[in-house]
Each structure stands twice: as C-alpha cells, then as structure tokens.
Design a protein that fits this description.
With about 725 residues, this protein is mostly helical. The protein has 3 domains: about 325 residues, no CATH class; about 180 residues, Methane Monooxygenase Hydroxylase, Chain G, domain 1 (Up-down Bundle); about 130 residues, Four Helix Bundle (Hemerythrin (Met), subunit A), CATH 1.20.120. It is about 80% helix and about 0% strand. The chain contains 25 helices and no strands. The longest helix is centred in the middle third of the chain and has 33 residues. The radius of gyration is 31 Å and the shape is elongated. GO terms for molecular function: transmembrane transporter activity. InterPro entries: PHBA_efflux_AaeB/fusaric-R. Keywords: Cell membrane, Membrane, Transmembrane, Transmembrane helix, Transport. It is found in: Cell membrane.
Length: about 725
C-alpha cells in the first residue's frame, strides 16, 4: 500500500516563513551596524545626563564640565573609555598642580606667568608628540588644564586653589559616570576587538607570504603591504593597551601579545630579506640557483595554503631540510658554481630555514591566543614609539607660540570672551600635535563647531529656556547631544561629533544660576570658534612641514636608527630597532593616506633596505661578541667600523670602501670554515654561516643604497 503523499505547504505558511526569515536577517544586520551605534548613543546620553544631574545636586560651579567630560570620553569600547579616563584624570591632577605652582610663583606678574604657561604647554605638547598613544593624552591634559586654571586666576590669584579643586571634582565626576555606564551597561569589550585584529593580522600575513612565494605580488605591492603591516603593528599595541584596563585581561595576555607582535616583526623582516633575494634572482634571469630554490618556494607556498598546525609546520621544515639536502647533492654532482652564485644559494637556504623557524614561533603564539591558552613566554618588551626630535620640538614650539599669540589678542582686544579663544587654541594645538594630518583634524572639529552654532542657539533659547526643572531641560537638550554622539560613533564624522558635543556642552547646558543673554551667548560662540580657527592657522603657518609622518623627517629618522644599530648598546637592541623602524613606517603610512605617491614609496624602500641592513649589522655585532679573536673576527670588525663611518657621512667612496671590506670579510670567513668541520664545533660553524648571510645582506643593501638616492639627515 502506497503511503499518502505529504501535503505541500500552504502558500500563506511559506510566505509567512519567508517574511519572518527576512525580518530576522534584516534585524540581525541592523543590530550589528546601526543597532550598535544607537546603543552607543544611549549609553553616552545616560552617562552625560547622570553626570549633569549629580553636578547639579552637588552644587558644582560649572556642571557642564562634567557633561563635556563624558562626551570627550565617549569611545567605542569599555577598555578605551577606561584607558582614556585614567589618563584624563592623571593629566588633570598634574595640570592643576602646575597651575597652582605657577600662580604661586608669579601672582602679580601676568607677563611672566604667561611665559611660564607657554613653557609648560610646550613641554607637555612635546611629550604628547613623543608618545602618540593614550599616554600622550595625559600630557595634553596637563598642558591645557594648567591654562584653564591659571588664566582665569590672573586677576584673582587667591581663587586659583578653588578653581583647581572644582576642576578636579567636575572632571572626576564625569569620569566616574562614563566608566560605570560604559563598563556595566551592555559593555563592548576591547579584548574581543584585539582578538579580531590578531586573527586578521595572522591571516593577512600568511596570504601575503603565499602570494609572494607564488610570484603573484609585485615588489611595489609588497612594499605597500609592508607599510600597512607597520600600521597594523602600532594598532595592535594600541588595542592591547586599551584591553589592559578591562577586568578579563591579564598580565599573561599582555606578555603573549607583546611576544606575538615581536614574532610577527621578526618573521616579516626575514621574509622581506628572502623576498628581495628572490626578486634579484628572478630579475637576473633563469639560473642554477633559481632552479634549485624554486621547488622550496613551491613546497612552502603549498603549506601556507593549509592549516598551520604544529605538526604541519614540523612536516614543512622536514620537507625543507630534504629539499636542501637534495639541492646540495645536485650541486655536488654539477659543475662548480661561480662565487656569487654560491653565495646566493647559501644565503637563500639560510633565509628559508630562518623564515620557517620564525613562522613556527609566530603560528604557535597565534594559536595560543586564538585558543585562549596561557603560554609562558619571555616578555620581549613593549612596543616603543619613535617620533623624530624635530617633530617633537616643532610641536612644543607651535603650542607655545599659539598660547602667546592668543594671550596677546586678549590683551589688545580687551574682550573678556577671548579667554575662550586662548583655551580652544591651546587645546587643539596640543591634541592635533600627534596627528599625521593636524589641519584635517582641526577642520573636522571646526565643522562641528560651525554646525553646532545654529543648533545650540535654537536649543538654548527656544527649548531649554522653557524648561522649569531638570527633566524638561534634559528633554530639550537631548536631541542635540544625541546627534553629536551619533556622529562620534562614525569614524568618518567622529571629529565633527566631538566638536559639536564640546561646543554644545559649553554653551547650552545651564548653570546653577540661569542667565539667558543672547549677546553673551553669541560672544562665547564667536570666541570659541575663533580659538579653533587660530589653531588651524598655526598649523598652516608655523612650521607646516614639521608634522607627524612627514616623509623628510621619517627618512632622516630611519637613517639615524641605522646609525644606532652600529653604535648602541646590544641589550635588546634588535627589538628596539625593529620597533622604531616599524613605528616610523607606521607614521609614514598614516600621513600618506590610501595612495602613497612616488616620493613616499621611495622612503618606504629606503626604510625596508635600512631595516634589512640594521638587522644584519646587529647580528654581526652579536656574533663578534661571542667569537674568539682571529682573522675572521677582525675582518667583521673592519666591516662594522667602515659601515658606521659610511652611515654617519654617506658618500659613494665610503660606500664602495665598505663593499670591498665585505668581500674581504667573506673571503676570511669562508677560509675559516674548513677548520670547524668537526661535530664538536657545530655551533661555531653555524655562526660562520650566519655571518656569511649577514654579509650578503649588507652587500646587497649597500648596492641598493648606492644605486638610489640618499635620504640621510
């Protein structure tokens, strides 16, 4: 008996299910994009008006300061909020202390007081430019908080202590409200963003290496990839610092992330050297060396297309060892290679083995982080930024000049509202000092000020003026501040949103004693905007070429780092050198934008060449320190001495002298190899082979330098 066929679903039921699935998918997509922004806006508003309510209840003199603090601290994740809050409070305390000291020293001499403030602001802005992370925010706050406290106390020095205590209280109240709301209510943990960054970094690097080994990526595209990788290294360190403030982040994770960054830089540098050698071999045409190493590249590329487990990586290294053994046997049976070809082969083999080892370390650290395993790793030290000294000095000088110019305007105009211009100009000169595009940053804030003008005026005199208690006042001001927070949630319009929020918080929020004065309101609007315009003009007029990431300063700083590789103390020198060169390339990437021009790409090539050169120099110094006296050691010391002289005073004659010294040293090292064939001397033999590889790197890097243009200081 045949079974009765099932009845087909009714059209109504199928249509309802499709509608339900469509609605569910759309809701899920909205929750992941706009939903996140609306939750962010809601949290910002809760923190802002909670701080404002508490400020009113406590009878603080300037309740808007607490609200403005919550707007400034509005960040995408709880870790970023907590990190910025910590540095804001620290900077506020230091700035208030500096203001108390300056006013106490110069209570009756305003001219000397302003000179002292200018010096203090210059030092703090220089410190902000030097660090370029959330630590720099403490320097910025310390600088302009001193101005905010000391300038109003010029005519009444006795009030400076009250002003300082009030400022700390108001800022502290805003910090507490922001920290509690963002860390408790629908918290968005930054540690998750850090892990997404780690995963993207790992996948991107593996794909890049595979593309290079398969010859799918041009040298020009590879250079741009290295520039982006440098920015990724800095971004991961910034994210790690923010995640450190979250409860679930441990010191062990910090060490793992440091080690992951260090392993990535090591593998990236080795692979760049390998890639340059491969490109030179291919550019020279098909030859015996290329025929021998191409199968090794192919085997490694196939491995990179698979899951890089520990077992698979061990198998890759075994296959590589077999390939090397087979290549050496093939060489022994064939006619002897020319000297240059033998050096190329030995160098390629050394770099392949080194890269395989670096890749295994990098993958192991990645899998430990991805699987949330606690790995015991030696901390290689934190990522350390490196800002060119000229940029630091220019940032401090520009901030000091800005303060003195606006103070002069205050004196000659005799307009009380000019105090606002002094504060705004000082604030944004300091904040933008760490930006690769300071004028664009200030323009974004200025746009927020301009857009906020009519909105703030309408909110103040058409809505807030009709409120008779706190809650109607919140309803009146809420649309303006919610719109500013919505803009802050967008990376493209964040600066405009911050400008609108700060502007509105200063003008719209009523104080304990309400005064609705149109003339005073317009005067404050104009003076605040004038201060931002002055900051923009200062970046345009005062040392406009001395900004973060300028290619001329980056090129000179890269050259100085190569000089220090020859002279500096060896302890953790390789780590510091790698950090600083990558950080300089990261600055260059931020300033260049998505499409670097030819001049910027030339600096990138120079930086990568100097990176290769510096690593070889540091390794040679380490080998010399561990070796015994002899002809090989003496020849290596001669290479380092001449190379240091060349880097300090580059010229073609000095470069050619170094090239000859490298050739002589290679001869001396190869002459020492037959004396260390015994198994008990395997370690020394490995050091000699490493020295030959480093000499080859120095030789080819110098050839690139001499064939191109110098970008030295």
């Amino acid at each position: 008996m045949n079974a009765t066929p099932a009845a087909p679903p009714s059209p109504d039921h199928s249509a309802a299910r499709r509608a339900f699935n469509w609605l569910r998918n759309e809701t899920r997509a909205w929750a992941g994009t706009e939903g996140e922004r609306f939750i962010f806006v809601a949290k910002c508003m809760l923190a802002s008006f909670s701080a404002l309510w508490l400020a009113f209840r406590l009878g603080l003199d300037a309740p808007y300061t607490a609200l403005a603090t919550t707007i400034i601290l509005a960040m995408p994740s709880s870790g970023m909020v907590l990190e910025k809050a910590f540095h804001r409070f620290l900077g506020t305390l230091i700035g208030c202390s500096a203001a108390l000291a300056l006013v106490a020293l110069f209570p009756q001499t305003p001219t000397v007081l302003f000179l002292g403030l200018a010096l203090w602001v210059a030092l703090c802005t220089g410190g902000a430019a030097m660090h370029r992370n959330q630590q720099s925010y403490s320097f910025v706050l310390a600088g302009y908080t001193a101005v905010m406290i000391a300038v109003p106390a010029v005519d009444a020095p006795a009030s400076v202590f009250t002003l300082a205590v009030t400022r700390v209280t108001e800022v502290g109240l805003g910090i507490i409200c922001s920290a509690v709301v963002h860390d408790v209510i629908f918290p968005r943990r930054h540690s998750r963003a850090v892990m997404r960054t780690v995963q993207a970094r790992y996948a991107g690097f593996i794909d890049f290496c595979r593309g290079v080994l398969e010859h799918r990526i041009t040298p020009e595209a590879a250079e741009l990839n290295h520039l982006k990788f440098a920015a990724d290294i800095a971004a991961l360190e910034s994210g790690r610092a923010a995640a450190f403030f979250e409860a679930g982040h441990s010191r062990t994770q910090t060490r793992q992330l440091h080690a992951f960054n260090a392993a990535f830089m090591t593998a990236l540098t080795t692979f760049y050297t390998l890639h340059r050698l491969s490109h030179r071999l291919r550019a020279a045409g098909s030859g015996p060396v290329l025929d021998l190493v191409e199968p090794m590249y192919a085997h490694m590329a196939r491995t990179l297309g698979e899951d890089l487990t520990a077992a698979r990586l061990a198998q890759m290294r075994t296959t590589l060892a077999d390939d090397i053994t087979a290549a050496r046997a093939q060489l022994a049976a064939a006619p002897a290679l020319e000297r240059a070809q033998q050096i190329d082969f030995d160098t390629a083999v050394e770099l392949l083995e080194r890269y395989a080892s670096n890749l295994a370390d990098f993958a192991a650290l990645y899998h430990g982080l991805a699987q949330q395993k606690r790995q015991q790793v030696s901390d290689p030290g934190a990522y350390s930024p490196k800002t060119p000294p000229a940029i630091i000095a220019a940032s401090g000088f520009r901030a000091a000049v800005t303060l003195l110019v606006t103070a002069g305007m205050w004196y000659w105009l005799a307009w009380p509202a000019t105090v606002n211009a002094i504060l705004m100009a000082t604030i944004f000169c300091a904040l933008a000092s760490s930006s690769p595009r300071p004028t664009a940053m200030v323009q974004g804030v200025l746009l927020g000020f301009m857009a906020g003008m009519p909105l703030a005026f309408a909110t103040e005199f058409l809505l807030v003026a009709k409120a008779d208690s706190f809650y109607p006042m919140v309803l009146a001001a809420l649309p303006l501040f919610a719109f500013a927070a919505y803009l802050i949630a967008s990376p493209r319009w964040a600066g405009t949103g911050v400008g609108m929020g700060m502007f509105s918080a200063t003008l719209v929020v009523p104080s304990n004693m309400m005064r609705y004065d149109v003339e005073s309101f317009i005067g404050s609007e104009l003076s605040l905007t004038m201060g931002v315009v002055v900051a923009w003009l200062m970046f345009k007029v005062v040392l406009p070429e001395h900004t973060m990431g300028h290619r001329g300063h980056v090129a000179a700083a890269l050259w100085r780092e190569a000089q220090q590789a020859c002279d500096a103390r060896l302890y953790r020198l390789k780590r510091r050198f790698d950090n600083r060169v990558r950080d300089l390339l990261s600055q260059l990437n931020a300033a260049a934008g998505p499409a670097p021009n030819a001049e910027t790409r030339a600096v990138v090539r120079q930086g990568l060449t100097l990176l290769e050169l510096g690593h070889a120099v540091i390794e040679l110094r380490q080998l010399i320190a561990a070796s015994h006296a002899g002809e090989a050691r003496a020849s290596l010391e001669t290479v380092l001495r001449l190379l240091a002289a060349y880097l300090h005073a580059p010229s073609r004659a000095a470069g050619e002298e170094v090239l000859q010294a490298v050739l002589d040293a290679g001869t001396a090292v190869r002459a020492a190899l037959p004396d260390v064939l015994h198994e008990t001397q395997a370690e020394r033999r490995a050091r000699l082979h490493t020295a030959l590889t480093d000499l080859h790197s120095i030789y080819t890097s110098l050839l690139d330098q001499l064939s191109g243009e110098f970008h030295a200081a």
